[in-house]
């Protein structure tokens, strides 16, 4: 029988291996930028055309390469950064595998120009599909220029899987941002289709953060530093009030290498515990420096996942550093033992008729007379106290007691429902007061049977749930989940008709985004217009909002759009959804949660229930969460059976 196992041709092996390193144009940007930093460059220029599909070019003034090194750099597993196994445990460079240039050259047309400072002429190499087609001397400046053209030209299947230009450009901006943030001492510039996107001069980290992320961070940065023998933490965190609805502006760098770590992110959030508004995320740029022997970065070719030798210690130090910074900058609550501890007087339970202010009831003589009345034998107060202490059931209130109680509620500004005629001794229906007292008020009156009308059978519980009696038992509805289902079906219908209603703002308002968020906004702008958003570009990374969808509350447009962008960016599900489906789901979730914990009137509760059951799938949200729970009568009876 003939042998069937054979070595793959070199060009085919290179194309297969390139799939791990070069997944999209952003992968090329990352590898070439890191090579420029490792080469000691002080100026780096990135030029992109057609979102990197046509051209990705990196020009740097680093150390450059000799003709021999230039040729060797294109071979697989050829590198200048490690020599032995021991070097893997003391890596200080960003690259070390020797795979990047070989992988890029296997799936693109590459033009490499390079020159060392001590040489008179440089070298020009032309490569196509791992094959060097030309090598010759050339006049060029010190440093290296690598132009990667027509990425995946020889692997059309991979090229067809690339996303739209907006998506690919967003990933390129992410990689550029990571390298630029970690190296503020280097001048970076970025050109997209011959237009300048960034021009970042060398400077301090705080200046680089503001230049990359926007002027809004100028007043929000708080320095964070903690030095220990095991780990050093340095960088900046954001003030709690500047927290955003998106997670995008969170960066960890370990030994100057950008990493992703849910574990360390949890350490930062633990330090912010109790300080952040609901569903918001803090900003941070934190640099961790520790012995390379204590980490393993050789986990994945992208090198964004690393393993720590002692994760718990790293977690504790990061959390302590952030918490200390919050305290130093007076962003965390603290006890002031030298301040005035005299609290404001408690408001009286009832005010006397004709009194000018509540303060009149707190005069010493008024307090003394109140105490005397309470202690007087036979007084109502005395009877109440003795009844409570004896443990016997209190007597039914008299008409005078009812009038006193009504006066008490009127003094608090509450309305008092009129007495209803006596009902037969049957189980009363569930109902709700028309104007319920706030949670902070005195004990509520017993629930009365409400009059017939909209919402008369619906009760709001904790401003989160609706209790609806039905023939078979009781139904509990989650307000936010119900709104999400209703809005989602409404938005899907609007997208199908492309004629959703819009409320025009009296004055257009400008909103500025980070370049990454603005790229996402451009990508979904047509779908947002179909949903009722009205906006136009108004300068770099800025839009002028002219109108919002009809059902969207008129509030901070920036927070609404940032939350929508974040949900669209991180949306993941068991099935592959088209873009319009994602936008409808994200907007429904964002608008529904923005009006959470709202007190509803009877008509609003009834309308919410009616609109929910008019939906095609009323029982679940678009992502599969329950909107309602039904408790059967038998289940309710089981709760009260004798054990």
UniProtKB/TrEMBL annotation:
Residues 458-599 form the MutL C-terminal dimerisation domain. Pfam families: DNA_mis_repair, HATPase_c_3, MutL_C. GO terms for molecular function: endonuclease activity. Keywords: DNA damage, DNA repair, Endonuclease, Hydrolase, Nuclease. The keyword Nuclease applies. Residues 436-450 have a biased composition (Low complexity). Residues 369-400, 416-454 are annotated as: Disordered. Transmembrane segments: none annotated. InterPro entries: DNA_mismatch_repair_CS, DNA_mismatch_repair_MutL, DNA_mismatch_S5_2-like, HATPase_C_sf, MutL/Mlh/PMS, MutL/Mlh/Pms-like, MutL_C, MutL_C_dimsub. It comes from the Bacteria. Residues 209-327 form the DNA mismatch repair protein S5 domain. This protein is involved in the repair of mismatches in DNA. It is required for dam-dependent methyl-directed DNA mismatch repair. May act as a 'molecular matchmaker', a protein that promotes the formation of a stable complex between two or more DNA-binding proteins in an ATP-dependent manner without itself being part of a final effector complex. Belongs to the DNA mismatch repair MutL/HexB family. PANTHER family: DNA MISMATCH REPAIR PROTEIN MLH, PMS, MUTL, DNA MISMATCH REPAIR PROTEIN MLH1. NCBIfam families: mutl. This is DNA mismatch repair protein MutL. The gene is mutL.
